[in-house]
Amino acid sequence: MKHKVPSRGKQVKMLAVLTAVFCVGPIWIGTTGKAESGNKQFSRGKTVYVKYCAGCHGIEGRGDGYRILGADPVDLTSPSIKQTPDSALLKSIHEGKPNMPSWKLRLSEEDRRNVLAYIRTLGNKNGSEKRREK
């Protein structure tokens, strides 16, 4: 399968987003409070999310982060995302989307699964982890 090389403009925008995420993410880690779940997967997923995802998707996952790459980032709390199978979301995290970089070289499979476990808790009224059938 051939991969398209993004235009110079998109490369610059992607670099700007990644720079913002790496610079702002560590600050947000200290301001988000404690996870309500003692689950290690949840805690690690939250750390990964804040570091790599919150810059665009927003700290609460509502798609209200930076909009450097064009279209609005996906609202991870929306009903459509809640209904999306884990396999499809893991594929998006791994391969990326037109306005989202691929994380396959940055995140291990375990980190991708941990961040998905955390994403599944976003928008829940009590913030507790919900398990999904696979």
User: What structural class do helix, strand and pairing data support?
Assistant: mainly alpha
Low-confidence segments? 26-38, 127-134
The strand count comes to 0
Estimate the mean pLDDT confidence: 77
Rg from alpha-carbon coordinates = 14 Å
Strand percentage: under 5%
Percent of residues in helices: 40-55%
Major beta-sheet overview = none
Number of structural units classed as domains: 1
Secondary-structure element pattern, one letter each: HHHHH
CATH architecture name = Orthogonal Bundle
CATH-assigned fold name? Cytochrome Bc1 Complex, Chain D, domain 2
Distance between the termini: 28 Å
Per DSSP, the total helix count is: 5
Describe the 3D structure.
- About 25% of the residues are buried.
- About 50% of the residues lie in helices and about 0% in strands.
- It is mainly α and about 130 residues long.
- The protein contains 5 helices and no strands.
- The longest helix is centred in the first third of the chain and has 24 residues, at about 10-30.
- Helix 1 (about 10-30) packs across helix 2 (about 40-55) and helix 2 packs across helix 5.
- The protein has a single domain, classed as Cytochrome Bc1 Complex, Chain D, domain 2 (Orthogonal Bundle).
- The model is unreliable at about 25-40 and about 125-134 (pLDDT under 50).
- It has helices at about 10-30, 40-55, 80-85, 85-95, 110-120.
